[in-house]
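Why show two proteins at once? Because comparison is the fastest way to build intuition. When a single record is shown, students tend to memorize it. When two are placed side by side, the eye starts asking what differs. So, the first record is below.
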Amino acid sequence: MSYSQLTLEQRYQIYGLKKTGCNQTQIAEIVDVDKSTISRELRRNKGQKGYRPKQAQRIAKARRNKVQCRITDSKWAIVEGLLNLKWSPEEISGWLKKYFHVQISHEWIYQHVWNDKKQGGKLYKHLRCQKSYRKRSQTGEKRGKIPNQTSIEERPAVVEDRERLGDWEGDTIIGKGKQGAIVTLVDRKSRLLRMGLVARRTKDAVKEAVINLLKDYPVHTITFDNGKEFAEHEEIAQSLDADIYFAHPYSSWERGTNENTNKLIRQYFPKDTNFRELSNSDVQFVESQLNFRPRKCLAFEQPMVFLKSHCCT
């Protein structure tokens, strides 16, 4: 089977799944690639300290660039001739591979076109879309890094084992057209849910919502998604006297309790819901509904009842 090009997002998935103890077959099924792709990825793109997603991305990119340098001028001349026929880079790449066994990826062809444009060339005028092309592997790089993060890797084992109340997972749900958001916080042990409506998903609005939602509850830790709305995590930690951790990018399963609860919330507020039309009462109603909904993982006890029966015991 052919080896698939992996994106940075998929490499983060592989890293996270490997950390949880998944084998290569399980990782391949979740990432949706062939098992040989995972095997080759872990073998070829690891460093001295093992497999790391960003390092793997750099190693793979360097290898592709090295191969790209071997493409002869005559092959590029063929590519340019096919571009003049209005063929897309993907069509050119697939056709050359199928009939001539020539390996030139469509991403390399796009890069060749834009390099030609920078030098005053006109190849880009033959593309259907004449705006600059961004490789899919770069999509996760634009989010920006939240300063002073503490990785979930440093989170104490007691959190993973759900041994106590007060270990929360946090995220935001976005409304239709990215208008408004709901901050969601779920206690890992009791599955108790706290929800807060914010008009805009800014770091200040989210900070205030998190503090207000948890100030009357036990809080030891919070594990957040990597969204930039949680950039004020240090102020949240100070206000709640809590330790805050961040899951790996594109690793939603590391906050599985929160993710599963968000899916329950979507039963009430589907993705086409305009959050600007919601009131605080609407959100509190859903919070109450879910906190008094029996959960199989709690032996069909309700989260609010479970919390009260186990609090301070």
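Second record. Ask yourself what differs from the first in the token line.
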Amino acid sequence: MNTLGQPKQHVPIFVGSTYEDMIDYRSAVKEALHRLEAIVRGMEYFGSKPGSPKEECLKSVRSCRVYIGIFAMRYGSIDAETGKSMTHLEYEEACKLKLPCLIYLIDEQKQPVLPKFVETGDSAERLKGLKEELKKKFMVSFFTTPDDLAKRITQDLPPILQQSGVSVSTEALTPAPEETTMLLKKFKARPRKHADKEVIIDLEVQGDPQPLGSDECSSFRLSLGDAIERRVKCDALGNYPQLIAVGDMADWLEGVPNGTKAKVKIRLLFGQSTELHYDEDNQPYSTPVISTGFRLVGVLEGEKEVEPAKTA
């Protein structure tokens, strides 16, 4: 995380999740955070201590500067006093402390989960409610494999740390150009399969911001009237593609002047809608329409740096 000649800055980061079902995921995240020279705190490190498990969990959250929440298909062990799971309480403590939060939800459509690790009954309903809250409060990221989760955190964390005054070298964290090129080729051929994956690219902003059309907003499930698009120049994406943004990222994209160069993180978008037609007898029929796009989710380097919306 430190640049050459600078002292290392070990930042304590709390990793919250259920445990048994997430052992492999937590191990991958821990290795990624150690490579970033972060101090990892979580349930593995509590050991034998005098306080109750809840007291130790919340104390550990209070000692950290960043919270990473990982949520799969288990709500977790319930605290008898509050009726909430320990993972839920850790998240609420991080919010109470106003810690920067990165939130990750397992992709229920793409990642298989063993039945023994899927909650049912009341716990399943509580987990569903918690996930709905997370999706409303944060720009969450959806993960599949342990490696996929670790890569997402490796990309998402540096901008958060930079906002806290920790010096981070983004060069070492940027995927090799051939990796980005290969993923974009795969996305072009099979957009549904590779949708929601994220890459880091260099671009130059061009043209004027325009409102994103109603069809695209509906297809990508974005807020009509807030989502915008703007032309950019980027070798990796081809000549002058349109970059889509909402919220804080839209504020940045519409505010920077033409010619602004930046290193950004984008999310690959896929959507499907229908188009109405009429045959020779004036009978209506519909055909499927596929939409693809690139959504701005973080600005890593460039004019008027903006913190990515907390997730990713």
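One difference worth noting in the second protein: The chain has two domains: 12-163, 174-302.
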